[in-house]
Specification:
Length: 151
């Protein structure tokens, strides 16, 4: 096996926490979890838009956790199909989070004049963290696609 193939593969074990872009899973957990918590703590006024944001945050949190534990256990076995799966998931997660952040931002803008002001501030914080999660997923996606291309 050539060194180019081994360096382009997915890490396993504790190496997951020491390689880039795989270390980005930690800010993805933090920002995604904050979006989840903040949206859940506000009053639901637009069920469809806030439901989509909740779906995206929970879906990405669960799938990222599952993939993280599979990589930690070494379940991928160094197979190139897992590199493609990782890249595909990062593309989907980036698109989902971008749509959720835009929808949440628009919904928050619409609700700016409704009382109480406390919920508006929580929604603003959720929008900020949704865009932060989007940014981390996009960075992870770019480097996962580069890893997939080189494998």
């Amino acid at each position: 096996m050539s060194s180019a193939t081994t360096s382009a593969g997915l890490p396993s074990g504790m190496q997951v926490l020491g390689t880039f872009p795989d270390i980005l899973v930690i800010p993805e957990f933090v920002f995604g979890g904050l979006v989840w918590i903040l949206v859940a703590s506000t009053r639901v006024t637009h069920e469809m838009s806030e439901g989509w944001v909740m779906f995206v945050s929970v879906f990405c949190f669960v799938i990222s956790t599952l993939l993280f534990f599979l990589y930690m256990c070494g379940a991928h076995g160094g197979k190139p199909a897992w590199v493609a799966l990782d890249a595909f998931y990062q593309v989907i997660a980036s698109l989902f989070y971008l749509s959720a952040a835009v929808i949440l931002g628009y919904t928050t803008y619409i609700l700016k004049d409704l009382p109480p002001f406390k919920y508006y501030q929580i929604d603003i914080a959720a929008v900020v963290f949704a865009y932060a999660a989007t940014l981390t997923y996009v960075i992870h996606m770019v480097f996962s696609l580069l890893r997939w291309k080189s494998s």
